[in-house]
Recover the amino acids of this structure.
């Protein structure tokens, strides 16, 4: 079964202006696909691939499931099970600590809170200071927020990993560090779709490169 199938996708900014038109794509486990376009196009594609945006036309299937056929509750659970997603707008709950934010997808899948925290500590000790887990999002640097968003995306070992432009607000050294974390943490079986405009390392071997 294909990990991702995008069929004849159309997406409009308003009633007339097309952001994405006639886009089709297939991805299997282990594939790495780079999609480049304008900021608006990349954001729209991220929302389409994660089921956050209603399609004007077309179909997005993840692990054989048509995302448009799921109700909001089903879609939320499906994302937790199969899709790891991170974007520059990190979506953390501001009142929660980073630990609490990172545990949410795992608890939604039925893990006990203590078990979820142990898993996050194990992931974090490999890459970052455990101290950052107990701070709230507003107390983290842009690099730490991007690293935490990456940790959240890989924590459930998803079949499909979708990364938006986590690297845009970072300097060259921070981008390199974040990519090192990515190579260390990426689940081997996942298909990667990267939506990025800059800061892409030569070390990634692309299955496909696509311009929107």
């Amino acid at each position: 079964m294909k990990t991702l199938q995008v069929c004849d996708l159309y997406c409009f900014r308003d009633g007339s202006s097309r952001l994405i038109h006639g886009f089709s794509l297939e991805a299997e486990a282990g594939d790495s696909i780079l999609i480049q376009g304008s900021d608006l196009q990349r954001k729209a594609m991220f929302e389409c691939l994660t089921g956050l945006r209603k399609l004007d036309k077309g179909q997005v299937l993840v692990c054989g499931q048509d995302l448009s056929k799921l109700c909001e509750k089903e879609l939320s659970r499906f994302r937790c099970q199969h899709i790891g997603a991170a974007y520059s707008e990190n979506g953390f709950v501001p009142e929660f600590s980073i630990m609490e934010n990172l545990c949410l997808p795992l608890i939604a899948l039925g893990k006990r809170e203590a078990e979820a925290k142990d898993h996050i500590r194990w992931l974090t000790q490999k890459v970052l200071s455990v101290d950052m887990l107990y701070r709230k999002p507003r107390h983290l640097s842009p690099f730490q927020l991007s690293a935490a968003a990456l940790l959240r995306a890989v924590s459930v070992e998803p079949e499909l990993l979708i990364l938006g432009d986590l690297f845009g607000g970072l300097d060259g050294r921070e981008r390199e560090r974040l990519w090192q974390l990515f190579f260390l943490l990426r689940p081997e079986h996942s298909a990667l779709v990267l939506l990025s405009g800059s800061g892409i390392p030569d070390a990634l071997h692309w299955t496909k490169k696509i311009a929107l």
